[in-house]
Structure to design on (379 residues):
């Protein structure tokens, strides 16, 4: 990696990524294989290094959100299968075919339009909406869906290789009603697959396991497990326990730029939302909301300094935030602090930060901005 300004940076542990993949692989049943979900720049981790590592350790299936992402994967993984989970404008049909990209088919109308825009067969997986309510073909019965897919199989320029669906509540295993909902989703897509087989439509893939599915609804009938958040070492539904030994892949660090002592009554940051009620030592840290560290964490989150938690005081600024470091001795400018990650016996996870302002760990890691360099370690 090129040298970078050590102001705020993310460390990406490829050894943690490999450990997670091996733990997930060991938990899969039957012949189910990992399909690594690497959309959104590999969930904010930096796609290039993540893709290269995954390929090195034997992952050959990848899932992304859109065509641009698929072409990036193809650049690093020329021999892999790459599935676009969502919509690609039909005018790019030839690009899909020429780059051997698998397109998700979101409706019968979309299938017909895509078929008409190319003369080169496009590899496809048909998306079924079995209860997510987002995209995909629907039907009152599995037979209805099978009718639509069978019709698609007659289209000259589409090569239907698989069907898939997405769980809506697989991350709620303690709720019997939601468990039943997930099992109904499973049963519906399996029934569609059985119906297609009876009609002579043979599929290479039928897949429905996502990260939560792997953890709480694992079975051998899904040919692929589309693993996203757990591959990066986070929980699908924090604080629900994860039954695998997963390690966070990303850490976020910055440095202390200024240290001062303040007297009672001193205001800190915009809006004067924090005023010292006793003599305090305040450190300014070189990270802010422009780096993806949310302003909503103002006066809520802690930062690790020399292995100890120090609270954020006052509002987080665009490029800086302030900490109460009164309990830390022998502290100097240039000291590295940890906003996400481990320092000594203490750890702050993206999931913990997310819980402080009502979001999810996914949003935390995907939101770390492009101006924050990704420093790959543990290759």
């Amino acid at each position: 990696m090129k040298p970078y300004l050590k102001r705020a940076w993310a460390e990406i542990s490829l050894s943690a990524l490999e450990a997670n993949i091996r733990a997930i692989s060991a938990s899969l049943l039957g012949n189910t294989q990992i399909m690594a979900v690497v959309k959104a720049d590999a969930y904010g981790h930096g796609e290039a290094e993540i893709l290269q590592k995954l390929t090195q350790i034997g992952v050959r299936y990848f899932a992304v959100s859109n065509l641009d992402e698929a072409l990036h994967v193809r650049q690093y993984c020329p021999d892999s299968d790459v599935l676009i989970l969502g919509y690609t404008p039909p005018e790019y049909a030839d690009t899909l075919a020429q780059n051997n990209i698998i397109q998700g088919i979101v409706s019968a109308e979309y299938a017909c339009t895509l078929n008409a825009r190319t003369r080169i067969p496009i590899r496809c997986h048909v998306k079924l909406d079995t209860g997510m309510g987002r995209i995909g073909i629907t039907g009152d019965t599995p037979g209805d869906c099978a009718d639509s897919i069978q019709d698609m199989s007659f289209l000259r320029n589409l090569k239907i290789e698989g069907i898939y669906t997405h769980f809506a509540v697989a991350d709620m295993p303690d709720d019997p009603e939601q468990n039943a909902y997930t099992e109904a989703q499973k049963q519906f897509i399996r029934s569609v697959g059985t119906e297609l087989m009876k009609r002579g439509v043979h599929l290479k893939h039928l897949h429905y396991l996502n990260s939560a599915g792997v953890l709480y609804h694992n079975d051998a009938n899904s040919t692929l497990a589309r693993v996203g958040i757990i591959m990066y070492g986070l929980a699908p539904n924090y604080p629900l326990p994860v039954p695998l030994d997963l390690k966070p892949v990303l850490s976020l660090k910055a440095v202390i730029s200024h240290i001062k002592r303040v007297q009672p009554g001193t205001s800190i940051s915009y809006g004067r939302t924090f005023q010292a009620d006793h003599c305090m030592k305040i450190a300014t840290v070189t990270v802010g909301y422009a780096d993806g560290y949310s302003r909503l964490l103002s006066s809520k989150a802690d930062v690790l300094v020399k292995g100890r938690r120090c609270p954020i005081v006052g509002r987080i600024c665009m490029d800086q935030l302030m900490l109460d470091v009164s309990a830390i001795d022998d502290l100097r400018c240039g000291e590295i602090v940890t906003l996400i990650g481990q320092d000594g016996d203490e750890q702050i996870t993206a999931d913990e930060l997310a819980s402080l302002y009502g979001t999810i760990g996914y949003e935390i890691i995907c939101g770390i901005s492009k101006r924050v360099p990704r420093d790959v370690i543990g290759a």
